[in-house]
């Protein structure tokens, strides 16, 4: 940690700040420059109250040197972790392909989608039974009934089930039916939920919050890992920016960046990442070329009548075409799909 | 709702889209322009699946006309609602002033802060017993013990207690001790929590998510109102932008905008909104001049040793000075403090 | 254009707004809904003063229906335009690969880079002679001497020269030496410069401003096209967002979006788009998979001693490897490189 | 400057990085921690090529310690500079109030506005003769004729003239008629224009770019100061964020932040900062309460027929009311208006 003193800092200020650093259990190196003095604090800076040092007299800024996460870091585990959950494997040479409708709406809708994505080569089925919705007046999901339909779809197709869990009290129930617990973007910093997922034996797909930094996402993963669950996949689903031609801005540089910093595998969601069906195929191909370990894509048999997210869903036919394109790109980066 | 057709849309596409509109229970007016056809859909567009229309063939874009919230809207209640909770009143002529430490750390810390803010003229005491923290390794709050200290502080000072609740299962417990349930920025779209607060009889301070739109904040409030709790205050606490000299960017235009759109009172949080102690006084004054109904400010007896948020906390002495400044600005806009 | 009236709008307000619409030469269709009245204005809404309608009494909002650009639109030209400039071709089946140093620093530096990128398969050489720099104390470029070195590099390698022009008065001079005039992100809305490039016969590479919308970029292109120069390439180089692990956020969905809206070819700049050398190769591959028509990449023989942008430059060896990877991805999307 | 080495950095990497630091004329202090080594580079880090150090083997990150600007810094001049230009004074106890139409449209429009803002107490008249417009099809301003009308308005009212200059070749001409040269947000990094204004003897109002950091704005000011012109005012006019209920997001914390960092006076533009007339009055009051040295406000005699910016212009009557409100707030912060 580096403490930058103000130009106007007195010797007393500098001594005091150095003492505060030592009080935190770190070693203080005072370096006096022509314009500014800096204090380099050596030791594990991930201790309580470190940033409050900015309130000490004469201190201008406190800059971190160490990454704030540990278990999620690449140093903790030098090869990429492979997360396995039923038919789904993410992190190995084969790219995991999770596809299906935004929400479970009916047996027919779900089974049609499940059969189609299976036939096209998907390795897991997505579908929401609990839908966190911006408006209280929107479709909130089929809940337990939806979970049962998902389990029935697995029964028939063999596809692992990925479905969202929105509250800690639901983790056990959802875990009974699902292979992967999805934590949505709005819940990325719902710490009780993270802790509950940390106690589950189910794999977890953790989505990035719409304005979360990657450090914050890795710290959210750290909550799960620290709870004892090592089966965590990270999912980039786009961030909120000034751009409005897409619903969110999908930063694919997240893929190589995370691969440098963490051993957790990385999944891309081009459906939420763009918000428009017509932009999804290009982003599927690009994600694979960037090195993503998996994709999660919304597929609906009848998008224009979907209860949610129709505008960003592929039809079953379009998904089949996307799979064919993605297979070729995967081969070009020495991966399989 | 307006459906903009693509230039290339055929007559069949237009007919089909119009039929879809009618199927949703709306009346379709087809307007053919030189370059584009638009369909104006008349009726209550807040129905399920409306946006999925973008997937219909030949449709380019669907634009909303009506605000998506109802109970929170200014039309539902033409005067600003006054929320009362113990010594705190927000929404009337007097500006509510909520002050206190980020987290409850000890009896001494809390009581010192409580007495100081009371003496300076605050009308409520803030202090977190449950702390949602980015890192699992950070101080997570004193929990029940913290709640008890808060209640003791109310006992002595008479100040209403504002404290955060982070999970639906805690709402009853926190409500036993607190006068106002605070929903933090990270939980603004934790719908189970919103629903639980909707069933509570305690007043709620709802903070804006760091990248939530104001429509999304109003829809979050709608969940609480729709649950039966009308005592909702909205709190602007800054949004995440490219700016890094402040921790968040505090958009004070939120105040007049919300006053046009909703009857719910508006509170400003200049501590999180700037992230730096030295910027807080100016933003307190500005918030009042902009017409805010309340402020929530972090005050700590010893910021540089605070377990959290020291860098953005005022000392007790600084708070007293800020109060004096704010009283003058309040008078200049015909309010009291 | 759609004019949404306030709920409180009177009949007089509605009549007045409709008259204002007619005064602008548009036809007003008044549609009265249960909650709101909207006026659909039919005709070419790209007329002066249209948005000032929002100031008319009772008007809530004015929403555009038509794209504001014409010559740049896909409707104006249904196939993608191929821009040719010496050895460079962008927009056809072959992907244009523009590579070279950020700035021209010396004959040796430039020639080493030029020979290396030529050998690796680049189709054009980039290099700045005029450097717009954030600080007045930074290296400002070799100017005319730099232009001469670039021309000498073309002489030897046959590579087309892409170099930045920063002021209208330089357009002729730069055009004497260069094959492509690059307009940098900071100058995307320097209209005098756009107009001067519109009068040039040289091809133009127009970079997106760091917070420009795509409509604004297309309107900037429209200035050039409207001036008579049809040889315009658009370049996505990343936008400014809250993300700080990359210098800018590179939204590759720009590629399919622009391909829907415009006939102008699209080039991606993964160097500025990420700001870190280690992230560049993945973004090169992803850009090609997304369908980009060209890439512009910073390559420097000795990045750690570069006068500018060393942190995001590839070495000559790294570039050769990237080219090999990109060739495979290009083949997977039926393009050549 | 702090160089953070990667965990995997070898002793050779560390030695090499330290040598590179010394080569730049700085003194290298190598500090070995448990997890990471950092090199603190002491000396003036504002030298060429510093950031390219990130390309040296084993280097993870380079962090600046010193502000990149010098002449603009508060250290260079400990009291706020007062900029005087005819009737306008900005930076002293009196708040400068610049008001008038977005663009000069006619003699009648300008004179009506000029008389009204003068009567209401404005100390300068704004009005654009050269209009940088997003679309080539929009009103581009009356140019020289507009300048003449502005000079005539000064003749009659005595108000100093603030008007935009969009190109270096216009600086002399505009300076003949105007008292203050305005550099618009889109030109904040048009360095030729900054340099030309640096050579002028006219005062300059420099607007923040819509996605410029405050360091970038101060470096833009540095270009002007370094050119010999010390009469620079900084203007916050809102930044581009995900928020869409306002056209830009107006961060008033810019005021106290800049007052800490620079001696240049700070002006707020609530018209562009909000983009909606109804939000302007509250932001005028808030800006003054925050400590702004001046305001620049769009006022038009007939906003709904304005050729540009009608949606964010106050009528003459509304401006008079805003002035009365602002005077009271100014008094509450011990300023005059």
Automatic annotation (TrEMBL), chains A, B, C, D:
Pfam families: DAHP_snth_FXD, DAHP_synth_1. Residues 1-66 form the DAHP synthase ferredoxin-like domain. Coiled coil: none annotated. Its EC number is 2.5.1.54. The keyword Ribosomal protein does not apply. It comes from the Bacteria. It is an enzyme of class 2 (transferase). Transmembrane segments: none annotated. Residues 91-326 form the DAHP synthetase I/KDSA domain. One of its GO terms (molecular function) is 3-deoxy-7-phosphoheptulonate synthase activity. GO terms for biological process: aromatic amino acid family biosynthetic process. Keywords: Transferase. InterPro entries: Aldolase_TIM, Class-I_DAHP_synthase, DAHP1/KDSA, DAHP_snth_FXD, DAHP_syn_2. PANTHER family: PHOSPHO-2-DEHYDRO-3-DEOXYHEPTONATE ALDOLASE. This is Phospho-2-dehydro-3-deoxyheptonate aldolase. It comes from Pseudobythopirellula maris.
């Amino acid at each position: 940690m580096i403490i930058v003193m103000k130009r106007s800092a007195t010797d007393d200020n500098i001594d005091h700040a150095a003492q505060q650093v030592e009080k935190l259990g770190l070693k203080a190196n005072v370096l006096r420059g022509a314009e500014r003095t800096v204090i380099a604090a050596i030791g594990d800076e991930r201790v309580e109250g470190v940033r409050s040092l900015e309130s000490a007299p004469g201190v201008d800024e406190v800059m971190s040197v160490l990454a704030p996460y540990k278990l999620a870091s690449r140093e903790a585990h030098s090869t990429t972790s492979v997360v396995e959950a039923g038919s789904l494997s993410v992190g190995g040479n084969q790219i995991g392909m999770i596809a299906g409708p935004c929400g479970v709406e009916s047996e027919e809708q779900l089974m049609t989608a499940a059969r189609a994505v299976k036939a096209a080569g998907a390795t897991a089925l997505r579908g929401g039974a609990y839908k966190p919705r911006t408006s209280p007046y929107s479709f909130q999901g089929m809940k337990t009934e939806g979970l049962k339909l998902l389990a029935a779809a697995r029964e028939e197709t063999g596809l692992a089930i990925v479905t969202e869990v929105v509250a800690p009290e639901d983790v056990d129930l959802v875990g009974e039916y699902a292979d992967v617990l999805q934590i949505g973007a709005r819940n990325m910093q719902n710490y009780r939920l993270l802790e509950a997922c940390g106690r589950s034996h189910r794999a977890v797909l953790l989505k990035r919050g719409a304005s979360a930094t990657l450090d914050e996402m890795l710290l959210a993963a750290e909550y799960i890992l620290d709870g004892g669950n090592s089966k965590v996949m990270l999912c980039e689903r786009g961030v909120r920016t000034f751009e409005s031609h897409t619903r969110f801005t999908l930063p694919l540089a997240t893929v190589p960046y995370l691969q440098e910093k963490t051993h957790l595998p990385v999944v891309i969601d081009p459906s939420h990442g763009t918000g428009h069906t017509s932009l999804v195929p290009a982003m599927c191909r690009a994600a694979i070329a960037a090195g993503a370990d998996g994709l999660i894509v919304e597929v609906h048999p009848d998008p224009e009548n979907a209860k949610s997210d129709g505008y960003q869903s592929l039809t079953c036919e379009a998904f089949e075409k996307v799979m064919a394109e993605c297979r070729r790109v995967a081969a070009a980066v020495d991966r399989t799909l």
